Amino acid sequence: MNHADIDTLVKSWIVDAADRPANPRVQQIVQRLVGDLCKAIEDLDISQSEFWSGLSYLTEAGKANELGLLAPGLGLERFLDIRADEAEAKAGLEGGTPRTIEGPLYVAGAPECTGFARLDDGTESDRAEVLFMQGTVYGQDGKPVPGAKVEVWHANLMGNYSFFDKSQSDFNLRRTIVTDENGRYAFRSILPKGYGCPPDGTTQQLLDLLGRHGQRPAHIHFFVSAPGHRKLTTQINIDGDEYLWDDFAFASREGLVPPVTRVTDPAELDAKRVNAPFASIDFDFRLYRETAAAPSPLVERARAAA
Ligand SMILES: O=C(O)/C=C\C=C/C(=O)O
Ligand SMILES: [Fe+2]
Ligand SMILES: [Fe+3]
């Protein structure tokens, strides 16, 4: 069957079959997706068994709540960001901190602190390297933004996230830091380890068939927001990680890999009240002023809340 015949068939099923008011946007997207799927079935000669095994895969991935992991794993979350970047560039926005993907593991409701927060609950202190990270949130005018919200979340030494990993304390490694009068944020935590897709999960099952690993470099997630500014969703990667530029979620970007310095000076250890050398990362966030010329950066998606 040729593509024109397929389009006619699909139109008859999805559009012409409507005998009551329909949602035109849903009709438009469903007609396109069903049409593209039918063309793929035709062109690739996808068998009925392959078709049904694909659907049962999606059923299993849904049951395992891993579709939020499959999307970045297939590059789709990165693709949405590429389009958002293009729209902002078209609106003349440039020079801000690069965005990158949110990922599926944000949890709303983390404790809020002003200026400084300690993220880790201390349970991994014997094995973890202490991390101090600090910086300033700037507006598009280059001025510091007091009262900005820096939401931060990252994995523990096992690459797991509190809330999803029930063995961790509530909101471990998750905080909302409100910048101080100088627009500064700072936190103490532990250096995270990279994340890996659950080895026997549905995402890794597909990645195996694609001959791909499911690893993310060690990274720290951020939402940075302030009244009158465009919300920034981004991450930083921990420099030196073996997967730094080999991220299964394709989220690594230039400008999001700040240098990690190792502090060993005893006076500085005392000042930070730590008794071992620690890692330090300086990183500023540059936000855009809100503008109607670019689509809203606010993304509605299912998110966990505790
Ligand atoms: O580490 C996680 O949060 C899970 C993996 C997926 C994407 C991402 O990280 O952005
Ligand atoms: Fe992540
Ligand atoms: Fe992560």
Q: Would you mind describing this structure in some detail?
A:
The chain has 306 residues and is α/β, with parallel strands linked by helices. It folds into two domains: 3-46, no CATH class; 70-305, Aromatic compound dioxygenase (Protocatechuate 3,4-Dioxygenase, subunit A), CATH 2.60.130. It contains seven helices and 13 strands. The chain has helices at residues 3-14, 24-43, 48-63, 67-73, 76-90, 202-209, 266-271; strands at residues 107-108, 112-114, 116-118, 130-138, 149-154, 174-178, 184-190, 219-225, 232-237, 261-263, 278-282, 285-286, 304-305. The strands form three sheets. Strands 3, 4, 7, 10, 11 and 12 form a six-stranded mixed beta sheet that branches. The N and C termini lie far apart (51 Å). Bound molecules: (2Z,4Z)-hexa-2,4-dienedioic acid, fe (ii) ion and fe (iii) ion (FE). (2Z,4Z)-hexa-2,4-dienedioic acid binds next to helix 4.
